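FIELD: query
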Amino acid sequence: MPSALRSCRRGLPGRHCHHAHGMAASALLLAACLCGAACDTGLEPPPEPDAGAIEVIVEYTGAWPPRAQLKDLRFVAMRFVPSDTADFLQLNRMAISDRLAYNVSADTVTLSDVEAGPYPYAGVAQQFAADLLAWRVVGLYAEDGGLIVVDPGRTTSISMSVDFDDPPVFPPAAE
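FIELD: result
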């Protein structure tokens, strides 16, 4: 405790007593201002989420590649149309699923916390070797022109197919 405040509490007169009360009042005012600044906007509804989800049902046809040629299989939604496999490194502009099941006729996967907005290119990609860029597209989402729109706080459900015997052309043709 400052000595001026101790003197004031002991009943000693003088200018120290007024100074101590001024400091205490300033501290109280500062605390009130900080509390007021920290308060939220009261009873307003919470802000709308800026993320949604994508639920994908994938149906498979054709002969599955041997396990040695299928290191990984994932659904990927991109906020851009890729021009080559190097674009697969733009991870911050993609929503990527967990690993998809192997050797099944169909699979369902849900991607949570997906940034809201348009995804003009989406499909299933296969990693065929250990190389970081050894990925190929084995199926594309084609409904609605291939465009997936994720709305905040909502789940967008899509269905697509993968034909291992007839994979899509990559890179996509420029339009």
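FIELD: remark
The domain at 51-163 is CATH 2.60.40 (Immunoglobulin-like).
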